[in-house]
Amino acid sequence: MKFDSDVRYLKSHEWARKDGDTVVVGISDYAQDSLGDVVFVELPEVGASVSKGDSFAVVESVKAASDIYTPVSGEVVEVNQALADNPALINEAPFGDGWLAKIKASEGSEYDAMMSASDYESYTKELED
Asked: Where are the domains of the chain?
């Protein structure tokens, strides 16, 4: 299991990485591993306003469909169009080419309140006990 120390995490298994004034959002390696082979992704619309904790995307795998929750409030400024043709990018590179959306955050403290990689790693170990 990979834990990227450059991102912050939610207990619902999303990750967020600051990139200037935007936040790149994806799902963790733990989440993609739990889901299995991703076969479809429903992404938010560019320009959509989102609030922290809202469901803003859906990832469907051979096992289940899972809501994806936004880790920060703001406006969706970009979505990963490559996932339409190749949703398996989420399995192959959850912290790289498998990102979901970029959000221009309206509240910086929401990002800071998320878990660090070491805290998230401890959290996932508790889930397996």
From this structure: 9-106
DSSP states along 12-48: TSEEEEEETTEEEEEE-HHHHHHH-SEEEEEPPPTT-
- The CA distance from 129 to 125, in Å, is 7
**pTM above the 0.85 mark?**
yes
Give me the CATH topology for the region 9-106. Answer: OB fold (Dihydrolipoamide Acetyltransferase, E2P) (2.40.50)
pLDDT of residue 108: 80
For residues 118 and 62, give the distance between their C-alpha atoms in angstroms, rounded to a whole number: 29
Percent of the chain with pLDDT over 70: 100
